[in-house]
Design a protein that fits this description.
The structure holds 2 protein chains of 2 kinds. Chain A is of the alpha/beta class. Helices cover 28% and strands 31% of the residues of chain A. Chain A has 6 helices and 13 strands. The relative contact order of chain A is 0.18. Chain B folds into 2 domains: 163 residues, Rossmann fold, CATH 3.40.50; 122 residues, TPP-binding domain (Rossmann fold, 3-Layer(aba) Sandwich), CATH 3.40.50.1220. Chain B has a 7-stranded parallel beta sheet with strand order 7-11-6-1-4-5-12, sandwiched between helices. In chain B, helix 7 links the parallel strand 16 and strand 17. In chain B, helix 3 crosses helix 4. Chain B is elongated. Classes of the chains: A alpha/beta, B alpha/beta. At the A-B interface, helix 3, helix 4, strand 7, strand 8 and strand 9 of A face helix 3, helix 4, strand 7, strand 9 and strand 10 of B. The complex binds flavin-adenine dinucleotide and adenosine monophosphate (AMP). Flavin-adenine dinucleotide sits at the interface of chains B and A. Chain B: Keywords: Electron transport, FAD, Flavoprotein, Transport. Chain B: This is Electron transfer flavoprotein subunit alpha. Chain B: Belongs to the ETF alpha-subunit/FixB family. Chain B: Its cofactor is FAD.
Chain lengths: 249, 314
């Protein structure tokens, strides 16, 4: 089985972002970019399936600007076999990404697509579900355990009330949650090796996909700042303030 | 501009999330119909019919609707969408699982996790863990929207909508339910509790988490939350994670114990009315959002706090 892992280049999760003062968006120049953390978890899971003999090949794919090749290299350095970069300038929404990924899936014919549940920049949590819909494949979202067996895969999902396990027919789309695994660091030899691994370049127009955004972002602003309050000296003072000043007890 | 609202429910009872998502749904377009799909969700449907401003409740019953699986739910909803201009649900894990699947089938881009309805086609939504707010205009032929329930008041009762049984759609047979492990608790639900007590990595073990957090939560009648570090370490179950990629809460009082205040955690609780933090590091970022901060070792401070609360009649 081949596993396809879509990975997104996003602002690193440690960066405190700045909203541009003209309201046109978030400052992205000279900001550290990384692979979306949920996608690292997806790459790791695919590699573990390969190491367990349940997958033969791991292909990482990214939709984005030329620099998204760096994100693909990160996946290759972790151990993925090859990459596909679909070049698109400007923003692409989950629906556009899902349409592009559908074309790649039709080319590559993976048995399983593992991707992040959520990109930490747009916080959309849509692309995996959309890809599954477009392919008419089952979906196992927010996975904390993935166990392929035969022509199916069992997925344990993190849901509001606890955990739910479902069984999906393969091929399927799985999206990762935080507890699925702890992604490995790329070793130096593997980083060197990754430089020689192939990255195939495509564009949305070669694939015949119209990925133009559908939603219009009218304005981006900073949320109202919360004022830090006061330090209290003791538990007694805390209770008295909560009762008499805040009125929440 | 008729709107279909997908209910969150437990068969006999309707989740509070539905009443909150309804508040947004009414602002997007009326009449609003609520879809209650489940094994046999009569109780939930009756409660939905009592919500103010609902015109009709559609009930679909069937074993394949018992567990919120996206594939059969999508087939059901697609069959109904000709009659609606908008589809709304809460940003529950069920809503997040199902709505994008419906959206893609309809070739529509979804608007996720809205925090305000500016106009029927214009929404506010947080991005980058709530560090930026976008105003998004959606001109899609049908609007598909999930709602951040912590940002909306629940709609009250007082309605008496018609309840109509609709026929189930066929199960596409792509997925099946195997089992579940639900966290049992008599405490208030995290998403709707007035008070939340949360613990972080500082708890050190599942036993300590239980020993420190539970009695305090019980004393305050609070729900229990946790940071990602506490969940990853196995101190608390996954459904208690508060944050960017967990639950978003906005209670009257949020008490953070041994939580540093990473942006991903703040994303889930910074809209709480009053925030209390107990942390032994006076530089911890949580103090930048806390209304009342106590720099102390929580293992001594929490017992003292419980004593003081008892004195105050709690
Ligand atoms: C993709 C992604 C998604 C994430 N999503 C979430 C999310 O949804 N929710 C979330 O919470 N995090 C999330 N995180 C993780 C987040 O970045 C932090 O790592 C996490 O919130 C830290 O948890 P913590 O505050 O419990 O632990 P720490 O940061 O380790 O803080 C522990 C705190 O306890 C204090 N302390 C220690 N001992 C004591 C004591 N005896 N008494 C008092 N104080 C003490 C310390 O001073 C410290 O401030 C996410 C991260 C990523 C990358
Ligand atoms: N531009 C992209 N290129 C590759 N994968 C993407 C892209 N955008 C989103 N994804 C995948 O879809 C997941 C969910 O993203 P989102 O729906 O935007 O929250 C991410 O974790 C990625 O796995």
């Amino acid at each position: 089985m081949k596993v396809l892992v879509p990975v997104k280049r996003v602002v690193d999760y440690n960066v405190k972002i700045r909203v541009k003062s003209d309201g046109s968006g978030v400052e992205l120049s000279n900001v550290k970019m990384s692979m979306n953390p949920f996608d690292e978890i997806a790459v790791e899971e695919a590699l573990r399936l390969k190491e367990a003999g349940k997958a033969e090949e791991v292909v990482v794919v990214s939709v984005g600007p030329a620099q998204a090749a760096e994100t693909i290299r990160t996946g290759l350095a972790m151990g993925a076999d090859r990459g596909v970069l679909v070049k698109v300038d400007g923003p692409v929404e989950p629906l556009g990404v899902a349409k592009i990924l559908k074309k790649i899936v039709e080319d590559e014919k993976p048995g399983l697509v593992i991707m992040g549940k959520q990109a930490i920049d747009d916080d959309c949590n849509q692309t995996g579900q959309m890809l599954a819909a477009l392919l008419d494949w089952p979906q196992g979202t927010f996975a904390s355990k993935v166990a392929p067996d035969g022509d199916g895969v069992s997925v344990t999902r993190e849901v509001d009330g606890g955990l739910q396990t479902v069984s999906l027919k393969l091929p399927a789309v799985v999206t990762t949650d935080l507890r699925l695994n702890e992604p490995r660091y790329a070793s130096l030899p593997n980083i060197m090796k990754a430089k020689k691994k192939p990255i195939d370049e495509r564009s949305a127009s070669d694939l015949g996909v119209d990925a133009a955004p559908r939603l219009e972002i009218l304005k981006t602003s900073e949320p109202p700042k919360r004022q830090a309050g006061a330090k209290v000296g003791s538990a007694a003072e805390l209770v008295s303030k909560l009762k008499n000043e805040a009125g929440v007890l | 501009m008729a709107t279909l609202l997908l209910a969150d429910h437990h068969e006999d009872t309707l989740g509070d999330a539905t009443a909150k998502a309804l508040t947004a749904a009414v602002q997007i377009g009326t009449p609003v119909h609520i879809l209650v799909a489940g094994k046999s969700p009569k109780g939930a449907a009756e409660q939905a019919a009592k919500l103010e401003g609902v015109e009709k409740v559609l009930v679909a019953s069937g074993d394949h609707y018992a567990h919120g699986l996206a594939e059969p739910f999508t087939a059901l909803i697609i069959g109904l969408m000709d009659g609606y201009d908008a589809l709304v649900s809460s940003s529950s894990t069920t809503g997040k699982n199902i709505l994008p699947r419906v959206a893609a089938k309809l070739d529509v881009m979804q608007v996720s996790d809205i925090s305000k309805v500016e106009a029927p086609d214009t929404f506010e939504r947080p991005v980058y863990a709530g560090n930026a707010l976008q105003i998004v205009k959606c001109s899609e032929p049908k609007k598909i929207v999930t709602v951040r329930t912590a940002a909306f008041q629940a709609t009250g009762e007082g309605g008496s909508a018609a309840v109509e049984e609709i026929s189930a759609a066929e199960d596409p047979g792509l997925s099946s339910f195997v089992g579940e492990e639900l966290t049992k608790s008599d405490r208030p639900e995290l998403g709707s509790a007035k008070i939340v007590v949360s613990g972080g990595r500082a708890m050190g073990s599942a036993e300590k988490f239980k020993e420190v957090i539970e009695p305090l939560a019980d004393q305050l009648g609070a729900a229990i939350g946790a940071s990602r570090a506490a969940v990853d370490s196995g101190y608390a179950p996954n459904d208690q994670q508060v944050g960017q990629t967990g639950k978003v809460v906005a209670p009257e009082l949020y008490v953070a114990l041994g939580i540093s205040g990473a942006i991903q955690h703040l994303a889930g609780m910074k809209d709480s009315k009053v925030i209390v933090a107990i942390n032994k590091d006076e530089e911890a970022p949580i103090f930048q959002v806390a209304d009342y901060g106590l720099v102390a070792d929580l293992f001594t401070a929490v017992p003292e706090l419980r004593e003081e609360l008892a004195k105050a009649g709690k």
